[in-house]
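Here's a chain:
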Amino acid sequence: MAAKIFALLTCLLLAGCSFLPSILYRIDVQQGNVVTEEMVEKLKPGMTKSQVLFVLGSPLILDAFRDNRWDYVYLFREKGELIEQKRMTVFFEDDMLVNIENHLSFSKDPIKPKPANASPDAEKTQSDDTEVKKAVP
């Protein structure tokens, strides 16, 4: 009887560890196809399937019912939390590329673009303008 109680308590204790996420280590996981902007720029309408395969690599999802669609999917999870998700679909007609649906934009922390006037020349021009305004009464 004591052995059964001990085994039951051990199982409950081990199951309770799943409720302590700060103690557990979760690895970063990258899944799918990494498609860069340079790769997308190389795609041109009229390319054959073999040319697209050379540029992008093998698609993650091949539709068994529609031979004219390839899906490239990418997921990045950091410590179990979804950080980045990208999807691109390539459509063919008569084995030639006709359309690209590009959904490569989702990111939890998007990169903020720099202001357009961040160049040193623009800062110098702005400082010259403020000096002129100060000098004029």
Observations:
- The two ends are 96 Å apart (CA to CA).
- The mean pLDDT is 75.
